[in-house]
Automatic annotation (TrEMBL):
GO terms of molecular function: 1,4-dihydroxy-2-naphthoyl-CoA synthase activity
Protein name: 1,4-dihydroxy-2-naphthoyl-CoA synthase
Keyword list, A-Z: Lyase, Menaquinone biosynthesis
Catalytic activity field: 2-succinylbenzoyl-CoA + H(+) = 1,4-dihydroxy-2-naphthoyl-CoA + H2O
Organism: Thiocystis violascens (strain ATCC 17096 / DSM 198 / 6111) (Chromatium violascens)
HAMAP family: MenB
Pathway the protein acts in: Quinol/quinone metabolism; 1,4-dihydroxy-2-naphthoate biosynthesis; 1,4-dihydroxy-2-naphthoate from chorismate: step 6/7; Quinol/quinone metabolism; menaquinone biosynthesis
PANTHER family (alphabetical): 1,4-DIHYDROXY-2-NAPHTHOYL-COA SYNTHASE, PEROXISOMAL, NUCLEOSIDE-DIPHOSPHATE-SUGAR EPIMERASE
Co-factor requirement: hydrogencarbonate
Length: 270
């Protein structure tokens, strides 16, 4: 990676190269479990990659080979939720899920080792998942007194089918990389030593394609699931494209020139 990880973060790393941003959860001592600080930093890093016009694709991963992410840090889970440094209980991981889902660039989960609990939902939310052959997937919520009934349940069902999604949540089993591939939970499985190069290869391929086409497609995939918010995303892309047309600009120009707009010259296409 071209840039050294910068030191503004404590729990994550942010690097970039070749129009790819790599965001790494860096808490290997707890299998990359997240705490409020981690989620806060992830939200900042994704916002940074979102806003950077040099970045076309974002990779989310975990430090080391043992885990992508093991979900919420159970050590700081108080009686009413996950506690931050000042003892306030909040996690905001649902906000992070929505952010990954709606930001207009492909997000790729690069998974080595465990993607478990809330960490499993994070890979699910990403647009694509490249798994190493040592990857293991699963939910633990009903075992540890938790659940994710939002995208964690609904998007899971849309991804692997309703029966399989219920099995994943109701039995809390673990699935190896091949089983995950068979049920459509990941896009490909590669030997661990090839994980990074394969992921970069997929990112390079996407970076060679039309960013606008990828952007509109991503919002299209969300549109029906996300109801009006999904339509808003898709329609926002239509508005942005309309702004680039002479017809859109005529409205602005007429306002600034204090005259009536002249839309007659624009075709009423069939
Ligand atoms: C991930 C897994 C399967 C790994 O097992 P293994 O055998 O490879 O490692 P081990 O020994 O269990 O873990 C290594 C160290 O990491 C800590 C462990 O406690 C252990 O620490 P030490 O004993 O060495 O001090 N660790 C691992 N995961 C942790 C976690 N999530 N929080 C704090 N410490 C953790 C195995 O470790 C495992 O099953 N982990 C727990 C997974 C889990 O239940 N996560 C929470 C699910 S709920 C959730 O994420 C959630 C939600 O449902 C809704 C909203 C938001 C979050």
């Amino acid at each position: 990676w071209e840039t050294p990880a910068d030191d503004r973060y404590r729990d994550i790393l942010y690097q970039q190269a070749e129009r790819i941003a790599k965001i790494t959860i860096n808490r290997p001592e707890v299998r990359n479990a997240f705490r409020p600080q981690t989620v806060r930093e992830l939200i900042d890093a994704f916002h940074r990659a979102h806003m950077d016009p040099e970045i076309g694709v974002i990779v989310l991963t975990g430090a080391g080979d043992l885990a992508f992410c093991s979900g919420g840090d159970q050590r700081i889970r108080g009686d009413a939720g996950y506690q931050d440094e000042s003892g306030v209980e909040h996690l905001n991981v649902l906000e992070l899920q929505r952010q990954i889902r709606t930001l207009p660039k492909p997000v790729v989960a690069m998974v080595a080792g465990y993607a478990i609990g809330g960490g499993h939902v994070l890979h699910l939310i990403c647009d694509l998942t490249i798994a190493a052959d040592n990857a293991r997937f699963g939910q633990t919520g009903p075992r540890v007194g938790s659940f994710d009934g939002g995208f964690g349940a609904g998007l899971m069902a849309r991804t692997v089918g309703l029966k399989k999604a219920k099995e994943i949540w109701f039995l809390c089993r673990q699935y190896d990389a091949q089983a995950a591939l068979d049920m459509g939970l990941v896009n490909t499985v590669v030997p661990l030593r090839e994980l990074e190069s394969e992921t970069v290869d997929w990112c390079r391929q996407m970076n060679r394609l039309s960013p606008t086409a990828l952007r509109v497609l991503k919002s299209s995939f969300n549109a029906d699931t996300d109801g009006l918010a999904g339509i808003q995303e898709l329609a926002g892309n239509a508005t942005a494209l309309f702004y680039t047309t002479e017809e859109g600009q005529e409205g602005r120009n007429a306002f600034l020139e204090k005259r009536e707009p002249d839309f007659h010259r624009f075709p009423r296409r069939p």
